[in-house]
Task: structure prediction
Amino acid sequence: MGLIVQKYGGTSVGSIERIQRVAERIVEYRQAGHDLVVVVSAMGKSTDVLVDMAKQIAPFPSEREMDMLLTTGEQVSIALLTMALHQRGCDAISLTGWQAGVHTESVHGRARIQEIDNRRILAELEKGRVVVVAGFQGISREGEITTLGRGGSDTSAVALAASLKAEKCEIFTDVAGVFTADPRVVPSAQKLPSISYDEMLELANLGAGVLHPRSVEAAKKYKVDLVVRSSFTNEEGTYVKEVADMETGRVVSGVAHDEDVAKITVIGMPASGGTLSKLFNTLAAQQVNVDIIIQGSYDSELTNISFTVSADDLHKALETLSANQAALGFERVEHETGLSKVSIVGAGMINNPGVAAEMFRQLADQDISIKMVSTSDIKVSCVIPAEHTGLAVRTLHTAFGLDVKEQAVVHGS
Ligand code: ASP
Ligand code: MG
Result:
């Protein structure tokens, strides 16, 4: 039987008992004859604990030292899981990202994987071992330890599955699959049997935390069959693939929300000479990801540009802007926090005009003000005050016909 790459998230390896359960599942797969490469995250919230310790020492610690610190989390879980496998008579070996040949760009905190030299993994598989690889980490050309960004273990798993031409990549997590909305916010949310890469990519980018967006991008690019499923049950999960099964012909497949949105407005930029490219190149050079952009000219020479960034990037964005104020030539910068982004996603939207209008009407009926809008072929997003997030998501979930009668079951924490 073929090779399967499995990934177990923080909750799934969050305690010794849970690590034991993961080991048992792996042994069952081995007994069924599969070769396995297993990617794990750090235990529970241990990455957050490490971040917190660093912040107690320095508000903005060195990014290199942060990577050095955070990669220890995964190293704990690969070693413990491998020991648990040994206890069960299962031959296994743990490898750090660099031992596994995960080569990344020379960026700290959010490096992209450039190449995987899978010779060591193949050699270990050849010896009949389960290979347990630390997710979220790699090594740069300069030999520095890097991390892929928070939640990056999913991307490690998909990249390994692509590199090893695995039969499939199973992402084991604390929910039963991909839901029509976050079940903690919408109790009537339902699990989708399947979803397309494009829809999943939108949902992941929109803050549906179940998969790291870059993992979905990589899965789409390399046509990796992805399955998202619970590590606490044997329930079938959600298949992420090229085209989702024809279902009920629904226009909207899911409602996503992201409560970490900050809005920045750059006031009085000279309106000529490649304003937008200068501004956004400057931000991109500092690895600040910009989301929604709105440009509004208020006279022929000056313009205001508003855009959103994740709340985590706000400080860096503001710092970058102020360091480059002279070169960019703007008057001043304003920013706003306490915002969220609510989005509807569905491949069926392409052929259905009026979906955005319906979304705006639903939000207006609830007296929710819309601050910014962005659309693509398969999604509409609105930035709204964060205090209305839950109401907005529930309203849209009902309005677009996604409610079911039974309550969704959420496992774990
Ligand atoms: N441990 C890392 C994090 O918490 C990576 C991951 O879990 O995917 O972000
Ligand atoms: Mg995750």
Residues 3-174 form a domain with the Carbamate kinase fold (CATH 3.40.1160.10). The first strand starts at residue 3 and ends at 8.
